[in-house]
Design a protein that fits this description.
single chain; alpha/beta; six-stranded mixed sheet; 3 helices; 28% helix
Length: 159
C-alpha cells in the first residue's frame, strides 16, 4: 500500500484556501499511485482554531469542506483532521477529530484523547475529551483494518 503524507501549512479560518491546498495534494497523491493520503490535525479549518470554535458558522464551514472532500475520496482514501460536533447534550459541544474518508463518505471518526492545556492551545475548555479506553467511533479497530485491506494488500510505501 502506498501512503502519501501531506505536511502542509494551512491558514486558520480560510476554508477555501485550505480546501484547494488539500485538493492539489490529493491530485498529486493519486498521480503518484498512493491509495491513502494523510493530512494534519485540524487541516480543514487550520490550526489552532482558538475561540473560532465557538462560532456556529465556523463549524458549518468545516462540515461543508468535509462533504466536498468526501466527493474526492472515490479514487483515494483521505485521512484529515477537523472539528466535529458532539451529538449528545452532555459535555462540550465539539471534538477534535480525525476522519477517514473513502468511497464518497466518512468511514471512520477518531476523536483526539489528549488535548493541550497550555498557552494559546488551550483546547480543553472548548473541546470534549474522551478517555482513551472509552473512545467510541463509528467503526471498531478490527473493522477499520478490514476496510484498509479492501483497498489493497498491505505493502507500505511512503512518498
Amino acid at each position: 500500500m502506498k501512503i502519501a503524507l501531506a505536511q502542509l501549512n494551512f491558514i486558520m479560518g480560510d476554508f477555501e484556501y485550505n480546501f484547494q491546498k488539500i485538493r492539489r495534494a490529493i491530485d498529486q497523491a493519486v498521480q503518484a499511485g498512493a491509495e491513502i493520503v494523510c493530512f494534519s490535525e485540524l487541516a480543514v479549518c487550520g490550526y489552532p482554531p482558538r475561540d473560532y470554535l465557538e462560532f456556529h458558522d465556523f463549524i458549518q464551514r468545516s462540515k461543508q469542506i468535509i462533504d466536498r472532500l468526501c466527493r474526492l475520496s472515490h479514487e483515494i482514501a483521505i485521512v484529515v483532521g477537523a472539528p466535529t460536533t458532539n451529538p449528545v447534550p452532555e459535555g462540550k459541544d465539539l471534538f477534535n477529530s480525525l476522519l477517514f474518508l473513502h468511497e464518497g463518505r466518512v468511514q471512520y471518526v477518531q476523536h483526539k484523547t489528549l488535548l493541550p492545556t497550555y498557552d494559546s492551545l488551550l483546547q480543553a475548555r472548548l473541546v470534549k475529551v474522551i478517555p482513551y479506553a472509552h473512545n467510541q467511533s463509528s467503526m471498531d479497530e478490527l473493522d477499520f483494518r478490514r476496510h484498509l485491506k479492501r483497498i489493497r494488500p498491505p505493502l507500505l510505501h511512503l512518498l
